[in-house]
Design goal:
The relative contact order is 0.14. The protein folds into two domains: about 40 residues, no CATH class; about 350 residues, no CATH class. It is mainly α. The termini are far apart. The chain is globular, with a radius of gyration of 22 Å. It contains 23 helices and no strands.
Length: about 425
């Protein structure tokens, strides 16, 4: 009866269309009251202990750094370098769009920030150059998701926190899948736009772009080099990214006033104000479930239903793809990662590899209705109908599904750079 009461409460909250924070807070209170010792103070104590981690600082720092870079000129100058490099290639502007998203993803950690920063420049440029509107929309929405898998990635940070997995290893594991997805998008762009006119390569244009963009191009080298060399932790790399962005935009490029910086800080704080209460309740629930040995019990119940690792991967991938259609990536990771990861380990799947699989699945959810985040953002930013954007991303979703099969079945693609 207690379990039925919990299920009934969750269904009622869903019917009443309550937000995730209310649902998680209610589930926490119910579990602590009826499955624990009845002391609700434990929610606050466990939540605080779980939140009291340095690595959590990396989330607001990366988000703030990405917002500052998207409002300033770092993204624009980086794009100019990519455009100068790809000018002699038929369809080079499409390739430049994908590469710009990949590089900006490596310093922002966010899919939506990448889409907005690169899309504001490249969407009108592609339309003026004669690219089809459908390709322009699809390429920006899809390449914008690269911020989710190419490190540093905020969803990977959340996954590492919820499953006690090494975040630096997750970052390193995202390199191979990130390169695979970027290569597929570039290849598709070259094929689709092969009849587009190319421009002559110009060393003077490239030189000017590099001089203007040298500070922009140095940032991913500093951040990723620091992380992969072990010189920076995830939190330290986020702090370096923020300080670097502030110095470059305000003192070197001099295109941002300090008042604009304060406005960006205010906007970022509002978005984070909705994230951290949800994170606290999710972490408190995770602590409680771990204390009650629920992951081990779930593994014991579910493991007999999976005859092989392949069967588990098939069922899990389908489930995550469907989940990505109806739930945002942060919520899905907070709720499902602590449940699915022990099941994956029981099937002999490396926890780092499974983290990459989960993030890639939910990355595809950014492009699938009804709640695809990049679809909604693109609809607002580019003033196109939701269904027009949905049709535009179909070829890219198919490419990503093909990549997901490779990533799931070839663990070495994710793990080859990790120490044995």
């Amino acid at each position: 009866m207690i379990w039925l009461g919990l299920l009934g409460m969750v269904l009622l909250l869903l019917v009443l269309r309550q937000n995730l924070m209310v649902i998680l807070a209610s589930v926490c209170a119910y579990c602590y009251a009826f499955f624990g010792d009845g002391n609700l103070d434990g929610i606050v104590l466990d939540g605080w202990d779980a939140l009291n981690k340095d690595v959590l600082l990396s989330i607001p720092l990366f988000i703030l750094a990405g917002n500052i870079m998207s409002k300033g000129e770092i993204a624009t100058r980086m794009i100019d370098v990519m455009k100068a490099l790809t000018a002699p290639i038929p369809g080079g502007l499409g390739v430049a769009t994908v590469l710009s998203c990949a590089i900006f993803a490596a310093i922002s950690g966010s899919g939506t920030v990448t889409l907005l920063a690169v899309g504001a420049v490249m969407y009108p440029a592609m339309i003026r150059a004669g690219y089809s509107k459908r390709y322009a929309l699809g390429s920006l929405c899809a390449a914008g998701t690269l911020g989710i898998i190419i490190p540093p990635s905020i969803p990977m940070i959340l996954y590492g926190i919820m499953t006690q997995t090494n975040i630096a290893d997750l970052f390193i594991a995202g390199i191979g899948p990130g390169i695979l997805l970027t290569s597929l998008f570039v290849g598709y762009s070259l094929v689709v736009n092969r009849k587009m006119p190319a421009s002559a390569f110009s060393f003077p244009d490239l030189g000017r772009a590099l001089r203007r963009g040298v500070w922009s191009m140095a940032l991913p080298v500093i951040i990723l080099g620091g992380i992969y060399s072990g010189y920076f932790t995830a939190t330290e790399s986020a702090a370096v990214a923020l300080v670097y962005a502030l110095v470059v935009e305000t003192l070197i490029h001099r295109n941002m006033r300090f008042k604009q910086v304060f406005d960006v800080v205010g906007d970022t704080s509002k978005s984070l104000g909705a994230l951290f209460p949800v994170l606290m309740f999710a972490l408190a629930l995770n602590v409680f479930l771990t204390y009650q040995q629920m992951p081990e019990k779930i593994v014991g119940v579910m493991q007999p239903y999976f005859e092989s690792k392949l069967a588990f991967l098939l069922v899990t991938n389908v489930f995550l793809l469907v989940l990505g259609c109806v739930m945002d990536i942060g919520s899905a990771i907070l709720i499902m990662a602590p449940i699915l990861q022990p099941l994956a380990e029981a099937q002999g799947i490396h926890p780092i590899h499974f983290g990459v699989i989960m993030v890639v699945n939910l990355e595809i959810g950014y492009l699938t209705p009804p709640l695809g985040m990049n679809l909604v953002v693109a609809m607002t930013a580019f003033r196109e109908s939701f269904w027009e954007i949905c049709k535009a991303v179909i070829p890219f979703v198919l490419l990503m599904l093909g990549a997901l099969v490779v990533i799931a079945l070839v663990p070495a693609l994710s793990l080859f750079m990790l120490a044995p």
